[in-house]
Amino acid sequence: MRGSILHVPATFAMTSIPLPRLVRRLAWLLAWGVLAWLIVSAIVAWRLTHRFAPPAAEPAPQVDWARFEELRLETTDGESLGAWLVRHETPVGSALVLHGIRGSRSGGRALIKRLHGHRLNVLAITLRGHGDSTGDVIDFGYGSRFDVTAGIDALRRECPEKPVFVFGQSLGAAAVLYAADHLDDRVAGVLLEHPYRDLNSAVWHRLSMHLPPGFDYLAYAGLRIWEPVFLTVPSNELAPQNYISKLPASLPVVLLNGAEDRRAPVEETRELGARAPRLLQFIEVPQVGHVPLSGAAPKLYDEAVDLLLRTGLEDALRASEAY
Known about the structure:
The protein is an alpha/beta fold. 41% of the residues lie in helices and 16% in strands. Helix 2 packs across helix 7, helix 4 (145-158) packs across helix 5 (171-178) and helix 6 runs antiparallel to helix 7.
């Protein structure tokens, strides 16, 4: 109506925000959100790449079936590792046992006993950044390649003339592969449980397991941003798939993986196996996830150990006869 005055309700007039002010508020909220995302990402990245708990003593257990000897091993890059050596009275060989991430040799007592039952001397070490070993940085097995060689050297020194077999779980399995070009003829065989294919895939699998869709992408992007700060090696170089082909051509390899493993999917382990110069056997354990397979599937595990030992010992015998 001509000459009429538009009346705005008082409540609307008091709560409305001018557009420029609204934009500024949204911009501030976005900026604070990005800052919070970066801070949380930095905290998580630091946590994942550093020791999970302070060093803790790992006293040798007292058992009635063997004697545990306590050792300290020095690596060539200056770390000190806790270790137990369990000798067999009539050994056919020696075993180096390497645990998974957030683990230690203390969690592998059942495996030590199982391998000892296969007539093996057993050296179980705690990898750097875990248990009673030194080291603060976790680089997902890359630095632990020096732990692997220190363990092999210790067995060659303590139990000479006995072939060495290496048993690695998850992180320990990756460490073995990173040490591939240092194994040469000192090792008669390796058995690896659910090694990860590459770090980027391993991180993504874990995030997608624990975060809802969308948040997993945000978390992954945040970790990649902080990667150069907290990783001593670029993540694209932390890929066991690029190292497994460097294993000695004559070295027998057994790979095991749980069919329900979401951290290191069985398809990726198969890809690793295809790159091994001498894959003796790939075992997919049904209805099992990312857990120690010696406990989850003891019969299959024992059969795999028997096959590895038989093959490695036959190879060693032929080599000694040829020499």
